[in-house]
Write a structure and sequence with these properties.
This protein has two domains: about 130 residues, PurM-like, N-terminal domain (60s Ribosomal Protein L30, Chain: A); about 150 residues, Alpha-Beta Complex (Phosphoribosyl-aminoimidazole Synthetase, Chain A, domain 2). Helices cover about 30% and strands about 25% of the residues. It has eight helices and ten strands. It has a six-stranded mixed β-sheet, with helices on both faces. A four-stranded mixed β-sheet has the order 1-4-2-3. Helix 3 links the parallel strand 2 and strand 3.
């Protein structure tokens, strides 16, 4: 008897991506052997027309989804074990879309060293919606709540590239070499940085919704406020001041102080820049200043 189309697609496109513990994607659940250290889990979802343009190449959708989750795992200093995937697409989605999506996953699995453990696929009357839950391990993790009064704020990467890439796609910003669009479509997660900051930084987090907003999350977790010195922000290309760092640009913010601050700034040569400092005097608030205050 011929398999239903859903299971044909699983066998054709996703079973080759499965790793140890996935049981060939033929059972109800994955089975993981004993896990060293702590289990670290993160999940994220993307919706067509919200997180990626309608009609985006499926391999880019897959790679962006995997990199978004991989980056959040790395922000806590964890190494990947594998991931669970949910794909919801319109009924008329053709085999070429699934083949491209699986090819994108395969490319990044090979680059980042992880495998598919299981998941689900279904049809939807709405736009393409994909969700990924990533699992990893760590012997020590970097949490947001570890920030302390007087810590310096350090940021890796440049602010606004991904947001500018979105504007470039609509023709609002010039992008002659396609760099900004590339930053929006295919984030570059800073995978080693999180692990190298363990034992150096008091706290860290992935930045995907803008430096001020995400630093605010970190500060609230620690019961602090922060001042970001605008002149020290590592901004992207011309016009970056128009756009916050959002749309999955994958930066990293870390806080540390004193001798640790020097080590934080030089962690692995990842280009961390001193951006501001945490204050008790601004309870649960985060703000920008021009350096004169």
């Amino acid at each position: 008897m011929e398999l239903p189309l859903e299971f044909q697609r699983i066998a054709r496109h996703f079973a080759p991506l499965a790793g140890e513990g996935a049981l060939g994607l033929t059972d109800d659940a994955a089975v993981l052997a004993s896990i060293p250290g702590q289990l670290v889990v993160s999940a994220d979802a993307m919706v067509e027309g919200v997180h990626f343009p309608a009609g985006e190449a499926p391999d880019l959708v897959a790679r962006k989804l995997l990199r978004t989750n991989r980056s959040e795992l790395a922000a806590m200093g964890a190494r990947p074990l594998g991931y669970l995937l949910t794909v919801a697409v319109p009924r008329n989605t053709d085999e070429a879309w699934f083949a491209g999506f699986a090819a994108g996953l395969a490319a990044d699995q090979a680059e980042f060293g992880l495998r598919l453990l299981g998941g689900d696929s279904t049809s939807t009357p709405g736009p393409v919606t994909v969700s990924l839950t990533i699992l990893g391990t760590a012997h020590a993790v970097l949490r947001r709540a570890g920030a302390r009064e007087g810590d310096d704020v350090w940021v890796s990467g440049t602010i606004g590239d991904a947001a500018l890439g979105l504007l470039a796609l609509s023709g609002e910003v010039a992008d002659p070499d396609g760099f900004l669009v590339g930053r929006y479509r295919l984030p570059q997660p800073r995978l080693e940085l999180g692990r190298r900051l363990v034992g150096i930084a008091h706290a860290a987090m992935d930045v995907s919704d803008g430096l001020v907003q995400d630093l605010g999350h970190l500060c609230r977790a620690a019961g602090l406020g922060a001042v970001v010195e605008a002149a020290h922000r590592a901004r992207g290309g011309a016009g970056a001041s128009r756009a916050p760092a959002h749309r999955r640009g994958r930066l990293r913010v870390a806080v540390c102080r004193g001798a640790r601050g020097a080590r934080c700034g030089g962690a692995g040569g990842f280009g961390l820049r001193h951006t501001g400092h945490a204050r008790r005097a601004l309870p649960r608030r985060t703000g920008l200043c021009d350096g004169a205050r």
